Amino acid sequence: MNLNQITIPSKNVPRAIEFYEKLGLRLIVHTHDRYARFELPDGDATFSIHEVDELPEGNGVIVYFEVDDVKKTVTELKEKGFEFDTDIEEQSWLWTEARLRDPDGNQLIIFNAGRNRKYPPWRKEGV
């Protein structure tokens, strides 16, 4: 099994397209203003947006984007005008991350975990 894509909700797909292109994703499908699909700079999975009437309540959607250098990426994104909800933080789960939101309030986390992404010290033995 391989992860094909993640699809998130938006009340305004054209506005979301502009945001995600500025973030660095490459638009590959946009046949109407109710759906768009992107390739990411790395990896094989894709990312899409679909129009909804109502957004999820509570914490909503959380998407993690892994980068090699969180500080460099966050600095570059701030230079492009992105505003972050948190500064870069070293988390207790051994990930370095900074958080921001897209125009629909979906939470985006720019992070790096290195080996700890899949192999934290508390990983189940034998897996």
Give the N-to-C terminal Cα separation.
17 Å
Strand neighbour order, sheet with most strands: 1-4-3-2
Beta fraction: 25-35%
Largest sheet: 4 strands, mixed
Number of continuous helical runs = 2
Structural class, please? alpha/beta
Helicity level: 10-25%
Order of helical and strand elements: EHEEEEHEEE
Quaternary structure classification: single chain
Characterize the overall form.
Answer: globular
Low-confidence stretches at least 5 residues in length (pLDDT < 50)? none
Average per-residue pLDDT, rounded, comes to 96
- Gyration radius, in Å: 15 Å
Q: What is the tally of beta strands?
A: 8
Please give a structural write-up:
By secondary structure, this protein is α/β, with parallel strands linked by helices. 17% of the residues lie in helices and 34% in strands. It is built from two helices and eight strands. The protein has helices spanning 13-23, 70-79, and strands spanning 5-10, 26-32, 35-39, 46-51, 62-66, 89-90, 96-101, 107-112. The strands form two sheets. It has a four-stranded mixed beta sheet with strand order 1-4-3-2, covered by helices on one side. Strand 6 (89-90) and strand 7 form a beta hairpin. The radius of gyration is 15 Å and the shape is globular. The mean pLDDT is 96.
